[in-house]
């Protein structure tokens, strides 16, 4: 049974008997700076007669913070426990705002070579309530001068493998009177699961991030072994079709992890420009954040800058995403928790 954070206004209206009560209940939830461990007996604007049966029929389950770590740049990583299932969430500060990076699964099935989450295997799907719970916890710890304005589904897991729950979480996070996040401020990532990607593009207004990471299928399959089913061309064609259908009114982000001597050549930069022709995209170049045993290398800063400059000169909107939170293993590809539930995995704090 759905609980308060993952109910739409229409669903809550049916539960509480009026739209006014539904709106007041959601306003109350998102106004809480410290989330209660139990729902109160009364909520302002909602009659006791309507509220009491609602809370009695549902278990109010909030994540417990097992551990938090903060890097010198202010990036904060949280190990959260949802009824014995542990996930990681990251808050990334920027000038005047924060971005909350949430997980859609505990573990992951995709086994990308460069991603530490694969060490967990797949544990279970997360519910929309649990995704929103991650957001609420991290949002409440954001300082006033850096409010949470953006959410990215780029934590543990492949969002397209849990799309029903992800779509519900996006809908609830962007509905009024929720935190009033704009659709453009919510980004859902994918490693390239084409059926899910197409459904997401058809059903959601949120932004999309495609983890591309190579300019040839051969190299892409080397670093992302489970992507061979859907070649690069089929994924990019889906973006072009969506852009044409929506008259370029969606943000498309192309995530490109740079690996030393693998996908960081001048030829790769040229191919990337050609591949993205006709797609109104922004490319995030992400220098590989290493962890032991992958055999992959981080490119030199000089090589990263050369790749970036070459792409920009050819008209590709490109930004280098230098690591945030690497000291606490909160950077891209570093999220992994210990299987015994003891918190963050020892030995994965990378500066290595």
UniProtKB/TrEMBL annotation:
Its cofactor is [4Fe-4S] cluster. One of its GO terms (biological process) is tRNA methylation. GO terms for molecular function: 4 iron, 4 sulfur cluster binding; metal ion binding; RNA methyltransferase activity. PROSITE patterns: RADICAL_SAM. It comes from the Bacteria. Keywords: 4Fe-4S, Cytoplasm, Disulfide bond, Iron, Iron-sulfur, Metal-binding, Methyltransferase, S-adenosyl-L-methionine, Transferase. CDD domains: Radical_SAM (cd01335). It is found in: Cytoplasm. SUPFAM superfamilies: Radical SAM enzymes. GO terms for cellular component: cytoplasm. The keyword Electron transport does not apply. Its main location: cytoplasm. This is Radical SAM core domain-containing protein. It comes from Archangium gephyra.
